[in-house]
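Morning, I've got a small favour to ask if you have a moment. Here's the protein in full, and shout if anything looks odd to you:
***
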Amino acid sequence: MRRNSVTKEFTVSATCPECGHRTAAHHTKEAMQEAFGNDATIKILCAHCQASFEQPIGLACAEWDDYCNEIPLPADV
């Protein structure tokens, strides 16, 4: 759950509430904007058991949550 200041890469991580599988995915700023925008909650599909669940973006990627609060995204304008 860190942001690389050189490439502005964000890590979204979550633990499946059904099977406990932990996943992490790295995204660029542009990919984060396209996938999640400034939504407060994101939907995640577990790669292990295929369960679908929601998680607050502040827990999945606190850096993206902070970034959204600092810089207005197109949906905010």
Summary: The chain has one domain: 3-72. Strands lie at 3-4, 9-15, 22-28, 41-45, 52-56.
